[in-house]
Amino acid sequence: xxxNVYFVFLLSLNYIQAVWIIAYKQFLSLKESLILTSxxxxxxxxxxxxxxxxxxxxxxxxxxxxxxxVTRKLNDWLISSLLLVFEDALIxxxxxxxxxxxxxxxxxxxxxxxxYTTNLFFLVIAQQLLLALLFFITRYILKRLALLNSLALLPxxxxxxxxxxxxxxxxxxxxxxxxxxxxxxxxxxYSTFIxxxxxxxxxxxxxxxxxxxxxxxxxxxxAEMYTQEKQKxxxxxxxxxxxxxxxTNLTADLEVNDLDHASQQLNSIIDYSDSFLTPNLYRKxxxxxxxxxxxxxxxxxxxxxxxxIDLSLQVSQELSSSAMNLVDFIRCFSILLDxxxxxTLVSQEKSISIEIEGDPNYITITVKNTYVENPEIALxxxxxxxxxxxxxxxxxxxxxxxxxxxxxxxxxxxxxKKDSFFIIVFSIPKLKNPTV
Length: 436
Description:
Keywords: Membrane, Transmembrane, Transmembrane helix. It is built from 13 helices and five strands. By secondary structure, the chain is an alpha+beta fold. β2 (about 350-360) and β3 (about 360-370) form a beta hairpin. α4 (about 75-105) packs antiparallel against α5 (about 115-145).
């Protein structure tokens, strides 16, 4: 049977593949991936001197570190738990027809020790290649179906479910390893079936949940568009009944050269018609074509409307082709919106402008907002950690924004001020082969 030292070494290689093929960039930064790789290398080396019964304890450090890194990045326990489950399920699948089955056949005396030893090297290579193939297929599916984008729509309060998932995962893996080392084929196949079936069950339910939340977000957007259009139609109908009378009064004022009263009449016509001549912002949001970002903008429109902030929105580019992780993009975009909202609230003229546009290589987000200028504060000071002009405010938003942008190659931002407006231009490279 394969020596436990080699088993731990091979398992470490499996998880290193998981880190760099599946998790890197999608869930982990370069620094985090290197830390996890170092943990796995240390695990493989120390297994030579440690009692073999403790190798699973070393794996727990890896599981915990990856869970913390992914949770901190995505702020979502469920995705962190499911990532571990999927990684282990794929590893179990790759070992099942290769090394594990060969070990059980040896323990059951179906094959001789000589035959086992002769063919073990080729089975180990087959396991590594099969796992790499499974990981590459999984990565392709994640990108093709934009599953991470869909998972971002799910509610964040899933800690109890996440703990239950991890408990079942570790229990099944423990049973599976016991079956391999003791030759209990029934326990091995049973625990493997649990892990794989577990993945299928949760994958299907998550698919249904994400589909539900997508449809729910789209329904909310349609309802807002309908409400705004209905209000405009009602105002237009009322205005139609009084429009002739207003024009008659305006003409009469001009005939008697009563310019002051004519000016008042004209202003009343402009004010009265402004509400239904204003473009439907919710209709523009529909062009974004990403439900989670549509929800962010929908809530922001309501927020600005409540605070009587004049909001302008121009959208000429979909965001599905962005090379930035959706969760990171939403964090960056929400920070810019929150910063613009807070600064505008204390300014005399309350105005915010948002432009989403693109060219063949980049998507560009421009956020302009009025603010109270302080000559003693340089523009770059706003991006310092813990810096804020607002009382009792942590001042971490724009600092976090700058750090996220810096973690992506070719992603840039620039700041400026013009005519009492604070301007941030945020550019993200497009994917070379965007998903359809």
